[in-house]
Amino acid sequence: MTVTTPFDPVRPLMGVEEEYLVVDPRTREVVPRAGQVVRRAAEELGEQVCTEITRFQVEAKTPPCAEPAGLERELRRMRDAVAAAARAEGLAVVASGTPVLGEAVPPPITEDSRYDLGIENYRALHDEQAICAGHVHVHLPDRERVPLVCNHLRPWLPALIALMANSPFWTGRDTGYAGWRVLSWGKWPVAGPPPYLEGLGHYESVVAGLTASGALVDPATVFWDARPSHRLPTVEVRVSDVPASAAESVLLALLVRALVTVSLERVEAGDPGPRVTGELLRVAYWRAARDGLDGHGVDPHTGRAVPVAEIVEGLLEHVRPALVGSGDLETVMRGWRWLRAAGSGAARQRAALKARGSFEGVVDDLVERFRA
Predict the structure, then answer these.
(1) What HAMAP family does its record include (predicted)?
(2) Structural domains of the chain ordered from first start
(3) pTM for the structure as a whole
(4) Quick check: helix, strand or coil at residue 259?
(5) What are phi and psi of 216, to 5 degrees?
(6) Mean pLDDT, 10 residues at a time, over the chain (372 residues)?
(7) Are 164 and 18 in contact (CB under 8 A)?
(8) Strand partners, 51
């Protein structure tokens, strides 16, 4: 997401990165052929598509967009190009946070000197790295403000996990969770919700200490779910599973943009953000990953277990002024109504298992839904 446009505090530019899994359409298992898919897709997408840490994964990213309609067009074009490239190679791609079928542990790692350093440092933590997330970047060139904005984002990250939960299965087993990827990813030393930060200087000193401790290979391995991008003038929110559809990615991006907009306004008014404890956020993450949209979550402000829908409604009320200002309120409310009726990506995967009677049927359903 290269940004050259001046900053717009009402409708800042947004961009989405999505990770997909490559599957064999005959066996429905994940296969380590992402490199072939990326090379072919790059003929249309160029640098918008690349490999990821495992050879099961493809990563694609949109250019910066201001309008939700433009973002959705870019997401659909991106998914169409990746799906067509996979078909040309006799393969398919799916948007799922975890592999439904296949021998995924340990995954084949993409050849790269940086990944070699990571393997040396993190070792068996890579065993469950065949996981796919959706990342949203929001233009925020004032880097001094980003850590304080992240303080305001922290309490709402579990709600985003529940909304986009799309990883109920792991290699032929129902985990009992809606978002198993979150639990798998949470094992890493610098992952999950960011700490409460006093400002950019505090952020940089924490990162320096983590680097000195050996917990980081480089600045890109600060894997907190909300962070200053190490390469772009953006705040990056990377908390959710890869959304099941392009429309859900748009919903996620609009909510994140609205959260950033509201948070920036509060920071500029002198509010450094609520001091929600890391212990409470950890529990809220767990409950959001377990229940998704179908049960209860933990209100990170009070610690009470409440219906997830109530937490999401609270999020929508929190960001309503920003959605009204950007003109995105009706788009977001329409997306939320649809999601409540259709169920999360995890619920739809489980519905496909029930309807089709096998995990192979789940993969078929994911392949069909990839561009829908």
Answers:
(1) Glu_cys_ligase_2 (MF_01609)
(2) 14-369 (3.30.590.20)
(3) 0.96
(4) helix
(5) -120, 140
(6) 76 98 98 98 97 95 97 97 98 98 92 78 86 98 96 98 98 98 89 94 93 86 92 95 97 98 97 94 96 93 92 97 98 97 97 98 96 72
(7) no
(8) 58
